[in-house]
Design brief:
Helix content is about 30%, strand content about 20%. It is an alpha/beta fold. Strands 1-2-4-3-5-6-7-8 form an 8-stranded mixed sheet, sandwiched between helices.
Length: about 260
């Protein structure tokens, strides 16, 4: 849990860029942060948001590592070239977005990387914000071997037929029956993408299917309320939801009550 560290405990981590095998056998870059110490440690796959494979994602990776999770954030925008994060994510948008199949393939590669490490405990979760939240839910439905999924304000889980594209040919909600791990959802009630009504629809489907899920919704918070570099940041709601993520992963990845 946040700020519940023991002051006499060893603390250390390794954080670096690596290469890993992604979709279609591509070699892609990833940011990898892991705790140092005895282990074994569970793994977390962090999926980038639409602002890109950026410093916020790297910082979040280190936060998870500080709390005992080996965390990998694959560069899902690798195929669009290299430059500043905003420039590359803009290229991705202009190109119709990163194909869902490609992101799922990168997640499968990240899962294999995490579970192959000698200090791994064999349990891996996935998390993403914004478009990454959508992808995290999709991964929970399509990637075998995950033990927990966290969707932070993922838009376009609910999609009308006219919103489907070659990159996103199926609405993630249509895969809900295949959700194979517990799901945590974090949403702001002032968000427009997804709207509270879309979150209601998402929850109704999960409830009807009898899925293991919990949704938490925050008044006074909109889209991206973890982003402390933006006006959208809401510190009280952000830290409360961080606590919920740590508790969720503690239960499902560490197996603690």
């Amino acid at each position: 849990m946040w700020n519940q560290l023991q002051t006499d405990a060893y603390a250390g981590m390794l954080a670096e860029t690596i290469t890993m095998q992604g979709y279609g056998g591509d070699r892609i870059r990833a940011y990898y942060a892991r705790p140092l110490g005895e282990g074994p440690f569970p793994g977390v796959i962090l999926i980038s948001h639409m602002p890109g494979w950026d410093e916020m994602n790297w910082e979040i990776s280190r936060r998870f590592a500080q709390h005992g999770y080996a965390t990998i954030c694959p560069n899902i925008y690798e195929r669009f070239g290299h430059g500043k994060p905003g420039e590359i994510s803009a290229k991705a948008r202009e190109g119709g977005g990163v194909p869902d199949d490609c992101v799922m393939g990168d997640c499968e590669g990240a899962l294999q990387y995490l579970t192959s490490q000698p200090y791994a405990n064999g349990r891996v979760g996935v998390i993403g914000m914004c478009s990454g939240g959508r992808h995290a839910f999709l991964a929970g439905c399509r990637v075998e071997g995950l033990h927990a999924a966290v969707d932070c304000w993922g838009g376009r889980v609910i999609m009308a037929k006219e919103d489907l594209t070659p990159a996103n040919p199926v609405a993630p909600i249509d895969y809900a029956a295949d959700l194979s791990c517990p799901l945590l959802g974090i949403f702001g009630n002032d968000d427009k993408f997804p709207t509270p009504e879309q979150v209601d629809q998402h929850e109704a489907v999960l409830k009807k299917l009898g899925k293991d899920y919990e949704f938490h919704r925050y008044d006074g918070a909109g889209h991206g309320f973890w982003s402390h570099d933006r006006d959208a940041y809401r510190p009280v709601q952000a830290m409360d939801s961080w606590e919920k993520v740590f508790a969720f992963y503690d239960k499902h990845l560490y197996g603690r009550a």
